Amino acid sequence: MPGEDPNATAICSDCYGYGRPWRAGASVMVYDGPARRVVLSLKNHDRFEIAAFMSGLLYEARQRLTPHPAVLAPIPLHWRRHMLRKYNQAELLSAELQRLATDDLHIPDLLLRRRHSPAMRQLTFAERMERMENIFAISQPDAVAGKTVILVDDVMTSGATFSDATRACYAHGAKEVCILALARATKDA
Asked: Which residues contact 127 (CB under 8 A, 6 or more apart)?
């Protein structure tokens, strides 16, 4: 969170119980209260300016993840959801981030979602992980091989989506994968 020690490392209780495949991760805010309203405005109410407004905080978080130039890849929506919404909020965020992180390469279509995944609100952690297994493919394997990849999304809940996307990147030779979310859902929230 802004104002915290940028060198501090925090590990959430879920990560202690279930090893994560990514090397490092960060979020800008907790998905609750005003932050939740901001994310939902971006996601469901066409408030595109929020991505630009949040880009500075995303950039600060990105800088703490890795000092290396990276490939920025948004988590994609399934084509049916994309058709309904007309845009991908994660792509807006990663594009705005790249505007500041000029050494990074933004590849908006790096990840391909192989199948639709219905809403997972009522699922347990294990059910979420199972539902998201082998859901992502890589469209440009050469863009990943030997590179640092930062996966970008609007909200991280269980980490199932990020986990499968991370595994897809490592399967194509990524050197390291980090994750960056605008907001992180927490048990307390």
From this structure: 120
CA dihedral for 89, 90, 96, 99, sign (positive or negative): negative
Cβ neighbors of 130 (< 8 A, separation 6 or more) are none
Per-residue pLDDT in tens (0 to 9) along the chain, 189 residues: 445 555 555 555 555 556 788 999 999 999 999 999 998 998 888 898 999 999 999 999 999 999 999 999 999 988 888 788 888 999 999 999 999 999 999 999 999 998 777 665 677 766 776 777 888 999 999 999 999 999 999 999 888 899 999 999 999 999 999 999 999 988 764
End-to-end CA distance of the chain: 15
Q: Are the beta carbons of 143 and 173 closer than 8 angstroms?
A: no
Task: Go through 17-26 and write b for each residue having 16 or more CB atoms within 10 A of its CB, e for each that does not.
Answer: eeebebbebb
